[in-house]
Amino acid sequence: MNRRTTNKINYILDNWMPPAMRDHRVLMGIAFRAVLGPKYKYYMTFKENACTMSQADINSYYELLADTFIKRKTDLNDGCIQFIFDHITGTSVLDAGAGKGYLAHLLYQNRKMLSCTEKPGRSEKADMRGGGYLKVSACDIVLPEKRDNRIQWKQATLTELPYSDHAFDTVICAHTLEHIKDYKRALAELRRICSRRLIMIVPKQREYQYTLDLHLHFFPYKYMLLDFLDTKDVQIFEVEHDWVCVEDFI
Predict the structure, then answer these.
(1) Which run of H or E residues covers position 25?
(2) Is 84 in contact with 239 (CB distance < 8 Å)?
(3) How many whole angstroms separate alpha carbon 92 and alpha carbon 194?
(4) Could you tell me the CA-to-CA distances from 26 to 21, 44, 68 in Å, in that order?
(5) Are 223 and 41 in contact (CB under 8 A)?
């Protein structure tokens, strides 16, 4: 099931299903058990437990439930992938929270094209690419067993990124921040290692007590996302029912 399809399903559940039903423990428990099997109880208690859990505990939770997650190549929809391709700047890019490496692999496959395309709206300081290749790096808390070793992989958490200040021209963080408890530290780290452009993608989704995604943060409205990011220097776009945020540092 691709991201576009699940976004449509989430939209129907979030906006058409009455909150009294959406937050009903018995009704949702029956539905979750049918979909998830014996581990459904972990989903039912996740939000009430998460407030007292450390990020390490939450990560262990995710690992325990990994076999219940929706199986797909990426959480990115096609529109967001194209947006990323159209807005990469500079000669080095990091996919932070890369998961299985789907996006990082796409970036590597298209590194020549991306490294030679100047972006619109940058007339004052146009990208000087010189025909070279875009350098692609990726990191995640758990490295995928099958990964493209031509990409520079590192094991890392978003709250402690093992890179120097301004290490990458473009930093991408897609469908990860909504899972991070200490999101302010994660944002500070992403901004610290980025020299030119930070692209962040999060789902546009309403908060309910029982959800299948184990998110900690929800952004149904743009103003909630602006408050989360705590900056005015950001552009926010809605792309196929996901939020795409762009921060420029030059």
Answers:
(1) helix 25-36
(2) no
(3) 10
(4) 9, 10, 20
(5) no
Burial class (CB in 10 A: 0-12, 13-18, 19+), 93: buried
At residue 51, φ and ψ (nearest 5 deg) are -65, -25
Q: Please tell me the distance from the alpha carbon of residue 103 to that of residue 98, in angstroms, as a whole number.
A: 7
The separation between CA 27 and the C-alpha centre of its own chain, rounded to angstroms, equals 30
Whose structure tokens read 């996919």? 95
Span 184-232, pLDDT tens digits: 999 999 999 999 999 999 999 999 999 988 899 999 999 999 999 999 8
| Residue 143 token pair | 């490295």
Range in 61-65, 145-149, 238-242 the model is least confident about? 145-149
pLDDT in tens, 81-127: 999 999 999 999 999 999 989 999 999 999 888 875 444 444 333 34
pTM of the complete model: 0.89
Distance CA 4, CA 156 (A): 29
Q: Is 58 helix (H, G, I), strand (E, B) or coil?
A: helix
SS3 state of residue 92: strand
> How crowded is the C-beta side of 228, counted as CA atoms within 13 Å?
23
Q: Which residues contact 86 (CB under 8 A, 6 or more apart)?
A: 119
Would strands 235-239 and 152-155 be described as parallel, antiparallel, or unpaired?
A: unpaired
Q: Is 205 helix (H, G, I), strand (E, B) or coil?
A: coil
Q: What pLDDT was estimated at residue 183?
A: 96
Residues counted in the chain: 250
Burial 43-79 (b: 16+ CB within 10 A, else e): bbebbeeeeeeebeebbebeeebeebeeeeebbbbeb
Beta carbons of 76 and 3 less than 8 angstroms apart: yes
